Amino acid sequence: MATLTLISSHDLKVTIAIVHVLIDVVVAAIRHIKYSNKLCVAVKPAISITYCIRINNNHEPLLSKLLTLGNDKSSSCLNCENVLCVIIQPYIVLVLIKEEYLAAMIHVGDNTWNLRIFITDLQVEKHLRVKGDQHIGGIMLQLVDPENPKDWSDHALWWPEKNMWLTRTRSTLDQVGVQADCLLHFTPMHKILRVQLPDLRYLDCRVDFSIKTFAAVVNLCKDLDIRHPEELSLCKPLEADHLKKNFGKFPQKKIPIAEPNGTVYLQPAPDTNSFIPINSAYHGSNGSLDRTQNGNFLCAPVSPYGTTPRRAGTAPGTPISSPTGTWKHSSNGYMTYDSGSSLGDFQENLAASPRSPSPDVRSRLVRPKSLIEKARMNVGWLDSSLSIMEQGIREYDTLSLRFKYYTFFDLNPKYDQVRINQLYEQAKWAILNEELDCTEEESLMFAALQFQINQQNETYQGIDSGIDSMNTANGTDDDIDSALNELQISLEGPNANVDGNITKIPELSDYLRFLKPRKFTMKGYKRYFFTYRDLHLHLYKSAEESRRAAPAITINLRGCEVTPDIVLSQGKFAIRLEVPPEGSNGPNSEVWIRCENEEQYAKWMAACRLASKGRSLADSSYESEVSNIQTLLNLQKPAHGVAVNVDPRSIETVDYLPPRMLRKLSSKAAQRILEAHANVRKLSLMDAKLKYIQAWQSLPNFGVSLFVIKFDGHKKEELLGVAYNRIMRMDLGSGDHIKTWRYNTMKAWNVNWGIKCMMIQFHDENVVFSVQSADCKVVHEFIGGYIFMSMRSKENNQTLNEEMFHKLTGGWV
Predict the structure, then answer these.
(1) Are 397 and 207 in contact (CB under 8 A)?
(2) CATH of domain 113-188
(3) Which three-class secondary structure state does DSSP give residue 196?
(4) pLDDT band, very low/low/confident/very high, at 347 (cuts 50, 70, 90)
(5) Which of 131, 383, 649, 810 pairs as cysteine with 272 (C-beta 3.0–4.6 A)?
(6) Angle formed by the axes of helices 685-697 and 417-432, to 10°?
(7) At 274, is the pLDDT very low, low, confident or very high (cuts 50, 70, 90)?
């Protein structure tokens, strides 16, 4: 110990050069921790000489002593981490200072200062003498102890106060703004993140918290064997309360940052999603950077609901080991990882999900009851341009991995077993939670397909590649021929051999019924002779007039909105069209077309769907579109006279039908599911999943992400629908499309981050709106993300252009 002795305060000549600070100023400085490490002495008659130091933990005992020093006539002792103050007499204080602490304070004129760095792995805090021109890499080298070798390659400096990583090792302390009063953390970049998969199972995954979320999702999907990771993202789990009001009406929370002196709250950046759901489903642990009351850091995981017990043999405060093997099922939907198993077993496990999750997990599912609640479900998406750590996520917190962009590129049963299964699971829960509306026939078809998948899973013998093996078993084709056949189909498409006369524009014509709804009128359908050619629908009074007279009605179907309206039990086959106006900025006009039978409906529905994408009947996908529609209609027909070998009482109907349909069918639900199952009982596991996904994609509102917005100059709330090729202005109550804008007519879009207002420039108008149900960054990223998805092709799908993705979604050029 080094000793400094200060004589009584009446010797003013000795102490005149020492800073004179009143005792209340010293106390206030200690309370607010607003001081440096320099020697600070207070000299005043009737007040003791005191020493002001930086307090790391419990400073209240010292404060109480300081407040009573002036009246204390006897000797007393103040003990602290670095300083021992002994009151010998009322006016004489003996100050004992640790040598290393004193040495750190007496550097004068060398431009160095003390930097505090907490090493999370060792649970120690180091003090380094540094200069402002030292680079980050050099600082990390100073932290490494050569006598205790350890792999520090995964560690980096984290600045809690600024909520940022210091990953640019060539930058200096002055360049990044680190000063003497800063506390940095030297912590691992890879941390354990609890991830809920689309099938509602939980994985503890080792994720890089220091890179951008987009890159972290790419690496995570690579570990999970999911191709095209750009279609997925991480989102913060929601609770029912988050659907009760808009994002803007929630109190604006700040990001909690763990500091040695307590928790500090930082305001999120203006150009990111500032939604912070601090709740039990999200804040699933104590966090690796949080301290307890005694100053220890906790790293032990807890369940997403705070109820999972600690693993056997794992002491409190001990981090669990990194996964090195295969995930196994457990009864509560939580996945553990055993060592010594192959990667193939891991992929096979994710390619087949449990029949149903635990009741606890299912009870926490969020079920929207209206369009506005469906819009509020998009509030939790993470910002792809920031790291996970920068968005308030800490180790062992829970995030959900979901398919964010509903455009699924190159689904291949041979390579996408995990991807197809997780996509099927997300579709299944979207239907069971009534996120999408289904008719009775559609609900029973989905239930039948799900029942067939469960039946096939029970006899599951391995990864189903989806390739017919009969030919190879019979020896008719060898492996090379099979591979060449697959390559031809993947490059040319399944309809490459369909004959077509390219010298003649295809045309579709037939008698249909037409209706244009009017307000305050009850007009019915009127029969016309329809001809469809080159994206235009022409209506004549008869077939003879179509050869010699002008059409009575002409409708341009390019960019129209198509909604099916069919009820097989009633023989109703209708198509609802919302057609954009010709050369004006007015709202869409609504027309209805009614067909006579299934075959007619399939042809005209396929034509309308292609027209909505700007494709004519000459497109090679027309025949396959017709075939897909007919297949889905056949799946919805009840099969009569087919023997059912399953006891209806053994079927848990709550696992197969949405609540609304359960109430409607009541006790007949199980029998109706078995009747519908007769249509799909011969499908293989992979075929059944693909049929389920295909039927999901054919639903009217599939792939439309909703947001509550207010247009500039309007007080009324409206809906904005964002799809893969367009954005739509929609009615908040009915969901009707008021106006549609295609991405191919978009010139530019930008955001005013200060007022959270978005402007989109089209060829003929500008659209300005503010988002109410989510942060403006979420809408911006959806639009940019879909434009990025549209740029993919089979020629360049081997490399993922991450730089282009961030240019389109980041908000800054």
Answers:
(1) no
(2) 3.10.20.90
(3) strand
(4) low
(5) 383
(6) 50
(7) low
Cα of 441 vs its chain's centroid, Å: 32
Distance CA 207, CA 688 (A): 33
Residues whose CB falls within 8 Å of the CB of residue 257, separated by 6 or more in sequence, listed in order: 160, 161, 163, 263, 264, 265, 266
Those residues whose C-beta lies under 8 Å from the C-beta of residue 391, and which sit 6 or more positions away, are 213, 255, 268, 272, 273, 382, 383
Query: How many CB atoms are closer than 10 A to CB 652?
Result: 9
Count of Cβ atoms closer than 10 Å to residue 198 Cβ: 21
Chain segment 579-620, per-residue pLDDT in tens: 988 765 677 889 999 999 999 999 999 999 999 988 889 888
Q: Which of 241-250, 252-261, 597-606 has the weakest average pLDDT? A: 252-261
Neighbour tally for 359: CB within 10 Å: 10
Residue-level pLDDT at 173: 95
For the chain, the domains span: 2-105, 113-188, 191-404, 508-683, 705-809
Are 508-683 and 705-809 in the same CATH fold?
yes
pTM of the model: 0.77
Give the whole-angstrom CA distance, residue 735 versus residue 748: 26
- What is the architecture, at CATH level 2, of domain 705-809? Roll (2.30)
Contact 385, 721 (CB under 8 A): no
Give the whole-angstrom CA distance, residue 396 versus residue 280: 12
Start-to-end CA distance of the chain, whole Å, equals 58
Architecture field, domain 508-683: Roll (2.30)
Position 797 scores a pLDDT of 57
Q: What is the pLDDT of residues 755-810, one digit of tens each?
A: 889 999 998 889 999 999 999 999 999 999 999 999 988 765 568 899 999 999 98
Q: Could you give the 3-state DSSP secondary structure of residue 563?
A: strand
Six token digits for residue 620: 């090679």
The one-letter amino acid code at 283 reads H
| Best CA proximity match to 72, nearest among 52, 55, 56, 87 | 87
- pLDDT surpasses 70 at 719: yes
Between CA 671 and CA 242 the distance in angstroms is 37
What are the CB-based long-range contacts (under 8 Å, 24+) for 143-150? 143/117, 143/119, 143/186, 150/121
The dihedral built from the CA positions of residue 7, 13, 18 and 22, taken in this order, carries a sign that is: positive
User: What would you report as the CA-atom Rg of the chain, rounded to the nearest whole angstrom?
Assistant: 34
- Whether residue 677 is predicted with pLDDT greater than 80 in this model: the reply is yes
Provide φ and ψ at 86, rounded to 5°: -110, 120
Burial of 656 (0-12, 13-18, 19+ CB in 10 A): buried
The pairing of strands 262-266 and 255-259 is antiparallel
Helix/strand/coil (H/E/C) assignment for every residue in 362-394: HHCCCCCCCHHHHHHCCCCECCCCCECHHHCCC
744: enclosing H helix or E strand = none
Tokens (6 digits) for 215: 């890159």
**Whose CA is closest to 436, among 655, 613, 658?**
658
Q: How many CA atoms lie within 13 A of 784 on its CB side?
A: 26
Q: What angle do CA 580, 581, 583 make, to 5 degrees?
A: 125
